[in-house]
Amino acid sequence: MQDLLIESTRKSPLVSLQDGDLQFIGRAIPENPADFFKPVMVWIKEYAKSLADHTTIDLKFEYINTAATKWIYNILKILGEVEGHQKKMVVNWHYEVGDDDMYELGHVLKKLVLSPFNFIEVEETSN
């Protein structure tokens, strides 16, 4: 499967999708989330058909709005629903020291997905 790389902007995160390694880094406040996430969802749905033996998803958001959060949830849901893959997928939620809102959002997402979910406190979430 071909990798997908979307460079970050002031309002959208870096997206790096490779076999077994998915990364979202930066600010996620795209003006049109559907347009931004459409190629990501196409890639995710194709990837879900032939998953790697292990998948790591790194979510390193400086800030993420509600609309983008819904897309991230849908991505986690699609991958988490692949039979037998829940234990082969790990989500790493990176949040900045003292950012209680991002920490809490990570816990909300953790409750909604079946895969292991790690919380990683960092000084900065930028790439």
| Strand proportion | 25-35%
Strand order within the widest sheet? 1-2-3-4-5-6
Oligomeric state, counting identical vs distinct chains:
single chain
Following the backbone from N to C, one meets helices and strands in this order, namely: EEEHEHEHE
Computed structural class:
alpha/beta
Coarse morphology: globular
Tell me the count of domains.
Answer: 1
Helix content: 25-40%
Instruction: Report the CATH C-level class.
Output: Alpha Beta
CA distance, first residue to last residue: 24 Å
Folded structure, characterized:
The chain has 127 residues and is α/β, with parallel strands linked by helices. 28% of the residues are buried. The protein has helices spanning 33-47, 66-80, 100-112; strands at residues 4-6, 14-18, 21-28, 55-64, 89-96, 117-122. The chain has a six-stranded mixed sheet, covered by helices on one side. Strand 2 (14-18) and strand 3 (21-28) form a beta hairpin. The chain contains three helices and six strands. It has a single domain (4-122), classed as Transcription Regulator spoIIAA (2-Layer Sandwich).
